[in-house]
Amino acid sequence: MNNAGTNVRKQPQDYTLEEWHKVLDTNLTSAFLCSRAAYAPMKAAGGGKIINIGSMMSIFGVSFSPAYGPSKGGLVQLTKSLATAWAKDNIQVNAVLPGWIDTELTRGARRQVPELHDNVLRRTPAGRWGTMEDMAGVAVFLASAASDFVTGTAIPVDGGYSVLG
């Protein structure tokens, strides 16, 4: 499971190149490197599962996270590329796209973007922030034999946020 994530919240014009690379290297390059390292052992074992943790920001952009969205969008495309390359080796590669889940990263966002909490509640049909427990079911499914013919997907777990377009 590739679950690295970091963010630098500021307007695009205020980003430094170092900040841009920090976010992309943490969120995207690390998943590539870990997946590449796992390939040979998984192939030798007859197959395996790679689960990338993306973000609903793979689908939507926000003004205060100009590198986070592209890094997670790239992770979805990496998921699809690896899935097509490695399906013949019985390696399934999928992504989970968490919505607004209550984590340390999103608590930081709420501290930095005061209107975020109310906007999330207003926009999310489920009417609440997600919990880590909300993520468990899809992860178990993707890690199990029940998903052996599922590869290259990106599954939102967002309380309906993405349904609204």
Notes on the structure:
This protein starts with 16 loop residues before the first helix and ends in an 8-residue tail after the last strand. The chain has 165 residues and is mostly helical. The longest helix has 29 residues, at 17-45. α1 (17-45) runs parallel beside α2 (68-86). Strands 1-2-3 form a three-stranded parallel beta sheet, sandwiched between helices. β1, α2 (68-86) and β2 form a beta-alpha-beta unit. The protein is globular, with a radius of gyration of 16 Å. It has helices at 17-45, 68-86, 104-112, 116-123, 132-143, and strands at 48-53, 91-98, 154-157. It has a single domain (12-164), classed as Rossmann fold. 30% of the residues are buried. The protein is 47% helix and 11% strand. The model has no long low-confidence stretch (mean pLDDT 95).
